[in-house]
Queue: 2 jobs
Job 1
Amino acid sequence: MISEGEMMKKYDEMSRQELEALKEELSKAYIDAKGKGLKLNMARGLPSKQQLDMEKDFFDTITSDSELISESGVDCRNYGDLIGISEARKLMADFMGIPADNVIVFGNSSLNIMYDTVCRSMIHGVCGSTPWCKLDKVKFLCPVPGYDRHFAVTEQFGIEMINIPLNEDGPDMELVAKYVENDASVKGIWCVPKFSNPCGVVYSDEVVKKLASLKPAAEDFRIFWDNAYALHYIYDEKPELLEILSECAKAGNEDMVYEFCSTSKVTYPGSGIAAIGTSKKNLDFIKSIITIQTIGYDKINQLRHVRYFKNIDGIYAHMEKHAAILKPKFELVDTKLTEELEGLGIGKWTKPMGGYFVSFDSLPGCAKEIVAKCKDCGVTLTGAGATYPYKKDPNDSNIRIAPTFPPIEELSQALDIFTLCVKLTSVEKLLAQ
Amino acid sequence: MISEGEMMKKYDEMSRQELEALKEELSKAYIDAKGKGLKLNMARGLPSKQQLDMEKDFFDTITSDSELISESGVDCRNYGDLIGISEARKLMADFMGIPADNVIVFGNSSLNIMYDTVCRSMIHGVCGSTPWCKLDKVKFLCPVPGYDRHFAVTEQFGIEMINIPLNEDGPDMELVAKYVENDASVKGIWCVPKFSNPCGVVYSDEVVKKLASLKPAAEDFRIFWDNAYALHYIYDEKPELLEILSECAKAGNEDMVYEFCSTSKVTYPGSGIAAIGTSKKNLDFIKSIITIQTIGYDKINQLRHVRYFKNIDGIYAHMEKHAAILKPKFELVDTKLTEELEGLGIGKWTKPMGGYFVSFDSLPGCAKEIVAKCKDCGVTLTGAGATYPYKKDPNDSNIRIAPTFPPIEELSQALDIFTLCVKLTSVEKLLAQ
């Protein structure tokens, strides 16, 4: 709909007249789009129906014929085994690349574990430290753009969040060290170290080592290492992440990290299993608290997962099938954005090697309006600002694109709307300057 | 082993000489018992293997052929539906005899919901009240003997627990009213209103009405109504419990109660589903907090339960089969205790119509020693004192007998040891006076 000549010219190099003409053209397309009555969703990181349909035999793993005794002789149908059956601890340990002794397998949600971990620290402190709720001020570092649900947790507990720029190799470590090593009220940092949400960043070895060798002012400072996408590759290229528990131990900071993971985006969201990996001391403290919170988690579902996958190689193979579904979607995003926006100087985006998101940065001050315009055309995006603490993106420019859920045809339509709205909003912005 | 004449004579009417002779005889039997190397457990309220083996086809309910869409069109394999799928809310509502709109279905553990409900109140208060962790003092009323895990929750949060005698129709309501209506630091009461743990008491209609019409000094006072054994009858006689939510509403106390239940002792401990039933206002507040804690609970397992039972009648029929397994065990306990202890004046016990426990009261000052002696003979009982807050039974007399788990032969052996240890301890006690 836009001619080739216009495509190639940077918007900020256009004359006012050119911009006015472009605006008129784009506005017509926008009105057309609004008229179509679309209802498309690129908002959340949901697996697609195609993916969920893929290996239904998961549900045939446990049947009336199954022997439901764990390897260590526990009847998985009865109470007990608070920290998870041994074979599930092993599977999730292999998921994280750490020893099984460092793992507790919980229920269905790693977010729930993270929430409870913050909550536990509020009420009981960390391994004997002062409960955070008794302190005047508790702060968390938040690499940005980041995961909205992390920020929502710390916000709910009244924890002050500090933005840390996320670079291509991980958080700005100079700034992280400045805060962590000088301010004892800084108690945590949220990290999605591999295929970060939404930027797709994989923390470099150097960043992991720097994190592991921090010298925190607070003894109860902890790294919240949400390894949600540990095995969620899209292409054949599989970037590696340095294993942080052993790095922390090497640096004399054995107790400084909690690692979280789950099979929510391996088997089924809501019906997966989730785990924490951390030091013996942290585990013992967590056990001493959760033994009052519950009698145990769903061991049948733990067994179902172990018997279905057999071992970590089973999960690797399974994730290859996911990748085959995700790859064309991520390629389509990049193709569409490149076709429509490249060279215009009105947006840049990531090309992640894994995870669930593409991160888009518009011209400053445009993200909210782009999301609103998309909404008017029936395309739901994650709310602008969601990728920042308190939903405040200082530049109003970051938008999280979640291409995993919609079928490819719908994704294509949604991306057409998106690029149109980016263009129109950008023109309006430039004209208003 | 004890002659008929001795059997009938009350221990405290025996001469010192008679007691000495009896002690010698019992001591021999006790040494014999210790030598047997038994390993029996009457400690915890676990379902038996026989019960768990009973309806294995539960695990065939969801298979690769199943359509996993809920009645309201939600794909149970994906994220969403925080408060539970509608049909599971209905099932658990019928379980409690309340409307589905008043229900949230959670994960696998009602204890976990109770813990989180106390925790939430500590951090966030109750529907806008001051967070309990900001108050100098928070108190809970604890009808005793009661459930050790309830007391452990309030103890962990530093909540002061006040013993309330549990009568045959429920807690001493005069005392409850005195505390609740005059002390604003009293924020809750733990109740197991039907087949209470361990006494098997069913609260009378009068007690329920009195509870429902309390006029609490604290606006954030709540009744924690753990209806764990709502459908867990042993005999054909099925005592009814008045439905407390509607009683509270009638009395103008709509928001004063949280009801908890689960299928842990209906299907499988750890792999069941659990729910809360409460007022709309409470539900909305809970939702506003848990929406940050998790994205949702295990909807597949919710669906599995609904599809297996079809409706509440399916659960009723299922529980009849449990009763058939439990009945001979509870009858054996009563028979053994009657045969060995009746008329001796050294113990009394309950004959519950439902639930999982028999409550035994020894002579004052004997419970710990009885449990210790049983342990020496290889019979594990719930720790003496466990049925009281802080594990402090002021009379050292209450012992919880849990007959559900052991096979009937083992239960019989364990009861022989138990009655022997009751006798020997009682004689020793009387001789020491």
Job 2
Amino acid sequence: MAAPIDFYFDFSSPYGYLASTQIDALAGRHGREVAWRPFMLGAAFKTTGQSPLTQQPLRGPYHLRDFARSARLLKVPFTLPDPFPFASLAAARAFYWLVDRESAQAKALARDVYHAAYGEGRDVRSIEAVASIGQRLGLDPAALREAVEQPAIKDRLKAETESAIARGVFGSPFLFVDGEPFWGHDRFYQVERWLATGGF
Amino acid sequence: MAAPIDFYFDFSSPYGYLASTQIDALAGRHGREVAWRPFMLGAAFKTTGQSPLTQQPLRGPYHLRDFARSARLLKVPFTLPDPFPFASLAAARAFYWLVDRESAQAKALARDVYHAAYGEGRDVRSIEAVASIGQRLGLDPAALREAVEQPAIKDRLKAETESAIARGVFGSPFLFVDGEPFWGHDRFYQVERWLATGGF
């Protein structure tokens, strides 16, 4: 069986949210699995010299409009949370604590965190907020709160982020399909074609 | 009749080249005309703090790959000229000298300059190179060489660039469809839908 598609994203990325609503269905149409891999986009920005889009002259106002317009076209809800951008450390650590235990639960938590943040515009920065989202999936909130303080989990997220940057990841979403890199939900039409044809 | 689509681009932009091979056909499918508007992307970069993509860590290597891959998907030839990025002042001035005289010729010149630069990887920086491309379209090379030195033409390009930035243009290609801004050839699927439905 073919290797899973690597789906790198930051929970604070609106385009990552849009991608999260499409990626599994896209992969599924071609019999492929998806490995979700949250990382710290801010660490990549230190390498590239970029900053959050909404803080940039001209680019900020455009992207605010494009987030909402792209969501309308995908028929998914979109509300920008306040504050934005926000620290996504708690959600990313919770994800990595879960993923080796129960990968389907980890993916469900990621989807629900994204939906809370960008579908409902809620503040998901704190571990309390993430634990409360997890509780509705049957996860023990106390265990989750404890988990994200474990040095092993902190190190795991650091290592995942470093490995992402070493592979060339600089934005969110960022995919690898059989080694081929694709940046942005706006490359999904290319990913679809790549999967259908084996490359072009 | 509906207003033309504004198509902003810099001759030194690979994604602008890709867009130039598609935009008139796209607009034509919806009975629309296109106003081609070269501008100086470097002036917008001064406002946004951006720099040419290929000079950026991580983003540079990715985009080199993406230029070529996106061109293959569109089935248009692609060769990166050397040097890249390059000064596109002569081509942009020549375009504005022509556009009020013979807009079809101006568009033909723009297409041929883009094709020479990115279809064939040729150096199109000098007015001699642009005049030689124009000559094959029946344009007088001496007139073209003289035209780009006229203060009125220099001012025209400056004014077009300032007006573009004032409208929020920060990248190439950049379109306005009935006031709605779209950045990137990768938004053409949205432009197509926008034109078909009158907005979404």
